[in-house]
């Protein structure tokens, strides 16, 4: 019965007929059943001194289950999991039951080693999931503009050449040539021929990843028709597959007349051009055919209409916080016609596919959504494997714990004599040796934790940096206390959350005698306040960590033990730093992997200095001279600076 139920698709994608609220209530009240069972089992062991281990074990488990059930029932909707989490919980419950059945089988076959065998079986299943993912996992995306409907997904890892006949008003007739066939026949003498194609195709050149540029007289471009008359292909380095960028294929193709074998036209076809609806249309006989190189399409039995797409940004920035799409899903084969909202971390699961909100674009007056469509038949394997491992580990741990408790109860552990009484040799000294160090350690740890949570005191005539640090600010679109902003900024700049100043010596003679001004620790909030107020002290604090000797040489600085330097020390050679960083940026745009360690560290240092400048400018209010006749120009300049800060 377990195997039969587990192999049905409803067991994986549905809830077997009950809604999530009902499942939640069954779970909450269902925990009372094992709690009562543990209570009954504990009562049977209560009067048997040889079963004290079982009594305490059943009692503790029963109390935990009873407390959990009471908390969930009393909490009501405030503690209830959302539907997505309930779906995962439902699968975990099924996996737990299946793991229990497997444990029973292992007990029959392997006896005491059942837990170890089951544990290793779960690990093996988890490892085999990689093979399943490689074989069955499939990803594509669906790009839809507001108000439009689509019934296909695109695989941006592959491309195809499509020849489209629009003559039928009801449906288009499309014939596609996969990119593998185009690559195979590049520079081949024999053209690609098919009865479904209105002409033969000869591939002159195929480029896996190509940009487009305006055509010039110096370009070698064989195209004699359409888009190729004004543009040409510029080969680009293929993407590594480690990022989100895609390869846009491009090619020059000859269209060959089937009867005469003569060339009709030479076209430039490009996946990048197809993205902006730039496709060539050729006339063969009395019909017109659209020719386009595009990403591979997979057509579906359902259609999706985009009603509305929305982008929500973090406060004061253009950084997206959330994308959401309101769609209409129509599938006549399943009698489905419903409105659905998809947003980040809340995908749609339908027909064995999962639709994730992936992206948003604004092209002119149109808003466009991108849905990532994932098909993974083995998505449940990790959940099942984890529960099998958990059951195996729990069984093995429980077995070992009960064995230990039984030995303890029977007096076979150290500290007990053969009659089960405490060994006289231990006495009070044994207790002191065993427990006093642990108690002392706990007291010290508790005192340390309490000291960390203690609010720092400040004198009446001193500035209260602790209270100042509580003031909320918006930075990078997120609301946070000033103290958090200061700590995070310092951690990026110097790998510390406070500033430790270097000991200052009056002169070399004092240094030799060991006389110096003591180093002090500056709070991050104090430094940030100095920076915001424009105090010179902020630029004298050693907040920039520099480890690279070549950069120190560029800045004409000597290595020091702390590796931290002030902005004032960096300032004299900032122009040399900016020049070298500019050269590194240019190289990074062309070939990132060619950057040396020195150049990478240089760009990192430039980013740190830029962050200090950004924080400083964020606290500077624009000033206006209202008596001047150029108030408008002042306002526009301030607005321009504000936009530049937003862009950073």
What's the short version?
The protein has 648 residues and is α+β, with helices and mostly antiparallel strands.
Structure write-up:
The protein is α+β, with helices and mostly antiparallel strands. It folds into three domains: 2-136 and 382-409, no CATH class; 139-375, no CATH class; 465-647, no CATH class. 43% of the residues lie in helices and 25% in strands. The chain contains 21 helices and 21 strands. The strands form seven sheets. Strands 2, 3, 9, 10, 11 and 12 form a six-stranded antiparallel sheet that branches. Strands 1-15-14-13 form a four-stranded antiparallel sheet, with no helix packed on it. Strands 4-7-8 form a three-stranded antiparallel sheet. A hairpin with a 2-residue loop joins β9 (280-284) and β10. α6 (83-110) packs across α7 and α19 (574-590) packs across α20. The model is unreliable at 505-515 (pLDDT under 50).
The span between the termini is: 60 Å
Shape field: extended
E-strand count: 21
User: Which structural class matches the secondary elements?
Assistant: alpha+beta
Total of DSSP H or I helical runs spanning 4+ residues: 21
Number of structural units classed as domains: 3
Mean pLDDT: 83
Largest sheet: 6 strands, antiparallel
The level of helicity is 40-55%
The quaternary structure here is single chain
What radius of gyration results from the CA coordinates? Answer: 36 Å
**Poorly predicted parts:** 505-515
The percent range for strand residues is 15-25%
């Amino acid at each position: 019965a377990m195997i039969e139920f587990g192999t049905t698709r409803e067991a994986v994608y549905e809830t077997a007929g009950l809604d999530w609220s009902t499942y939640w209530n069954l779970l909450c009240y269902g925990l009372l059943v094992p709690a009562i069972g543990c209570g009954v089992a504990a009562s049977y062991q209560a009067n048997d001194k040889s079963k004290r281990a079982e009594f305490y074990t059943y009692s503790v488990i029963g109390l935990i289950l009873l407390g959990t059930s009471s908390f969930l029932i009393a909490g009501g909707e405030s503690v209830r999991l959302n539907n997505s989490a309930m779906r995962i919980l439902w699968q975990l419950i099924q996996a737990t039951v299946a793991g229990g059945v497997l444990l029973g089988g292992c007990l029959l076959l392997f006896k005491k080693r059942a837990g170890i065998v089951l544990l290793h079986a779960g690990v093996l299943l988890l490892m085999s999931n990689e093979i399943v993912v490689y074989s069955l996992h499939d990803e594509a995306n669906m790009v839809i503009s507001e108000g439009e409907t689509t019934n296909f997904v695109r695989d941006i890892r592959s491309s195809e050449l499509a020849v489209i006949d629009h003559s039928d008003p009801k449906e288009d007739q499309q014939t596609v040539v996969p990119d593998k066939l185009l690559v195979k026949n590049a520079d081949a003498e024999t053209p690609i021929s098919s009865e479904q194609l209105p002409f033969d195709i000869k591939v002159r050149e195929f480029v896996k990843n190509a940009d487009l540029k305006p055509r010039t007289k110096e370009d070698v471009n064989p195209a004699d028709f359409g888009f190729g008359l004004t543009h040409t292909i510029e080969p680009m380095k293929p993407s590594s597959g480690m990022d989100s960028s895609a390869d846009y294929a491009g090619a020059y193709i000859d269209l060959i007349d089937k009867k005469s074998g003569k060339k009709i036209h030479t076209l430039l076809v490009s996946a990048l051009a197809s993205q902006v609806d730039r496709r060539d249309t050729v006339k063969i006989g009395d019909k017109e055919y659209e020719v386009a190189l595009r990403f591979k399409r997979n057509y579906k039995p359902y259609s999706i209409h985009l009603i509305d797409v929305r982008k929500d940004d973090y406060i004061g920035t253009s950084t997206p916080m959330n994308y959401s799409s309101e769609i209409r899903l129509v599938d006549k084969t399943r009698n489905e016609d419903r409105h659905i909202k998809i947003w980040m971390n809340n995908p749609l699961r339908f027909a064995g596919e999962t639709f994730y909100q992936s992206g948003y674009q604004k092209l002119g007056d149109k808003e466009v959504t991108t849905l990532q469509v994932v098909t993974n038949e083995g998505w449940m394997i990790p959940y099942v494997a984890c529960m099998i491992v958990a059951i195996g580990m729990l069984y093995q741990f429980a077995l070992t714990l009960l064995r230990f408790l039984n030995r303890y109860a029977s007096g076979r552990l150290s500290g007990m004599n053969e009659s089960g009484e405490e060994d006289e040799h231990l006495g009070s000294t044994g207790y002191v040796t065993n427990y006093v160090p642990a108690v002392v350690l706990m007291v010290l740890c508790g005192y340390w934790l309490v000291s960390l949570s203690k609010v720092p005191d400040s004198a009446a005539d001193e500035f209260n940096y602790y209270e100042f640090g509580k003031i909320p600010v918006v930075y990078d679109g997120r609301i946070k206390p000033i103290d958090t902003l200061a700590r995070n900024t310092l951690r990026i700049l110097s790998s510390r959350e406070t500033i430790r100043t270097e000991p200052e010596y009056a002169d070399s003679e004092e240094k030799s005698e060991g006389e110096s001004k003591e180093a002090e620790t500056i709070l991050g909030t104090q430094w940030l306040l100095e920076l915001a107020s424009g105090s010179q002290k902020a630029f004298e604090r050693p907040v920039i960590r520099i480890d690279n000797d070549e950069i120190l040489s560029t800045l004409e600085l000597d290595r020091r033990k702390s590796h931290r330097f002030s902005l004032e020390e960096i300032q004299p050679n900032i122009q040399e730093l900016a020049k070298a960083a500019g050269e590194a940026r240019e190289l990074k745009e062309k070939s990132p992997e060619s950057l040396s360690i020195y150049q990478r560290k240089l760009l990192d240092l430039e980013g740190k200095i830029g962050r200090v400048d950004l924080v400083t400018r964020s606290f500077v209010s624009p000033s206006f001279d209202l008596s001047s006749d150029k108030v408008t120009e002042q306002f526009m300049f301030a607005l321009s600076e504000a936009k530049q800060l937003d862009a950073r």
